[in-house]
Amino acid sequence: MIQLLFLVLFAEGIVALLLMVKIGPLRELVMKGLDQVKMGKGPATVKTIAGTMSVILLSSVTSILKIQNKGAKLGTMTPMDQVLWRTHLLETSLMGFSLFLGFLIDRMHHYLQKLNRLRGNAGASKEEFEKLQKERAQLKEKEEQASKEIKLLQEQISTLSQDLKKLKLEAEEKDKKVETAEAHVVSLQKQAADLLLEYDRLLEDNQNLQTQALGFRG
Fold it and tell me: Could you read off the pLDDT of 155-176 as tens digits, one per residue?
């Protein structure tokens, strides 16, 4: 019994050490092994073993108390009682320490699982943060590109506005020239009409003079 308890304590000590100190891939192997133990009927089996050890522990404590009470009544303990007392005390110490190490291993396994999940979430959050930063940089580049395009369009609009103003001024000047030319044409037409009237008058005077000249000859 005592040799078995020493073996259990040794195994639990190694498991606890590997959980506390990361030595290559051994911690991951121990974690996977504990995960397998906690699956299916594993928890029930562990609880049964722990319950049995607790009962044996209480029995050993009871035996120790009985031996002490017997020795107190007799004033001394017989060599057999002393051997039994020391044996029960050693078994009790080993079982108590074994139960304590089992509880410690269970808690360490639980918190390491939480730590691994937190690290996984932190890694995912970091990747998401980097993705958001990348998208933000892309949006900033697009914004700068759009700003450049807007400035270019504004410059083009400004140039077109200036060209439109020039065209309007040229059109107004041409309209003025057309109006001036039309006025000049109207003036020339009036002068031509006056000249035609004067020409008709002169022709009439010339005919009158020719008629008078013929009259004098006759």
Answer: 999 999 999 999 999 989 998 9
